[in-house]
Write a structure and sequence with these properties.
- This protein is α/β, with parallel strands linked by helices.
- The longest helix is centred in the C-terminal third of the chain and has 21 residues, at about 210-230.
- The protein is built from 8 helices and 7 strands.
- Helices cover about 35% and strands about 15% of the residues.
- The chain has a single domain, classed as Alpha-Beta Complex (Spore Coat Polysaccharide Biosynthesis Protein SpsA, Chain A).
């Protein structure tokens, strides 16, 4: 049995070469879990093929906490691949996602969770974003261009703080770049999305994995892939069945 099924809420923390942030990962998540308003809560750390020595450190601190779990991928698949692994291996009713750089505040999950029973996804909005001008400008343009394609009306789809109903996350069609379209994918699966302002901080350690191509040009290309997929997406609900008859 997957042990996340014993919990109400699972925080998925994908990471790739974040050795300098390992101590913060353990400290921040361990501090939050007892304070989570959707209790009991656990954390699932997804190692996306790290090769900087951080994997062993994360496995070590997971062994010290009964509510910490670990998945290690054979190779680097990108953020969307790591999230897919997390979604596929999570069986609590609700799951959350936060980046391992902790530029968003894990405590703000409680701001999102208060709406989790009414919405299939609750996503953060970085109201006062602490990034450089180029990163902020490229992100604003990418968000504007994405909304033209998806009509999801989400102002900050790239905010790495989200809460999703697990049964909805299991239905997401997965593809590279999927993490940019989580609100649109939720709406495509007939789900409702709520936006909540959250705090945002400068990166304290490590290095960003994003540059001009994967922050701007890559997302623009992914919009065309999303548009193609959305027109062909199949969503169904069973009216009745005899599978579980008395």
């Amino acid at each position: 049995m997957n042990r996340t099924s014993e919990y109400q809420f699972t925080i998925i923390v994908p990471f790739y070469n974040e050795k300098e942030n390992v101590a913060a990962m353990e400290r921040n998540i361990a501090t939050f879990l007892p304070l989570c308003c959707k209790s009991p809560a656990c954390a699932l750390f997804v190692d996306d093929g790290s090769d900087d020595g951080g994997s062993a450190l994360v496995r070590e601190f997971c062994s010290r906490h009964r509510d910490f779990f670990y998945i290690g991928l054979e190779r680097n698949t990108g953020l969307s691949g790591a999230l897919k692994a997390g979604f596929d291996n999570c069986f609590s009713p609700f799951l959350g996602y936060i980046d391992a750089d902790f530029q968003t505040d894990v405590m703000d999950f409680n701001l999102l969770l208060q709406y989790a029973d009414q919405y299939e996804m609750v996503t953060g909005i970085r109201a006062k974003r602490n990034d450089g001008f180029v990163k902020r400008a490229s992100s604003r343009f990418a968000n504007w261009f994405r909304r033209l394609f998806t009509h999801d009306n989400v102002s900050d789809t790239g905010c790495p703080l989200k809460v999703i109903r697990t049964d909805v996350a299991h239905r997401f069609p997965m593809f590279s770049g999927m993490h940019r379209f989580l609100p649109a994918l939720t709406q495509m699966a007939s789900g409702k999305v709520k936006q909540v302002e959250v705090r945002h901080y400068p990166r304290a350690a490590g290095h960003s994995k994003y540059h001009l191509f994967n922050r701007l040009l890559g997302p623009l290309a992914d919009c065309f892939a999303y548009r193609w997929m959305a027109k062909r997406y199949i969503d169904y609900k069973i009216k009745d069945d005899t599978l579980n008859g008395q």
